[in-house]
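User: structure tokens for this one?
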Amino acid sequence: MKSSSSTVTTKGQVTIPLKIRNRLGVKPGDRIRFRELDVGVVIDREENSVETPFGALAARRGTRLAQIDEQVRKGWARRARR
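Assistant:
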């Protein structure tokens, strides 16, 4: 088993080593999940679910589907730049 280490900041933050980020496919803006087990903690990347975007847009009466699609595209573009 390979190991890596990182220092915890005063805010409780740590840097995930590059090799581990690459292995998990973690990118800026991704969410990380911590699961406690009897033998330790498992860290993995949370997968985006279908429900994630719901509630992100406030559609008003008369909003066209093309307008909603454009807002979704802009949101994903912003997320990709993080």
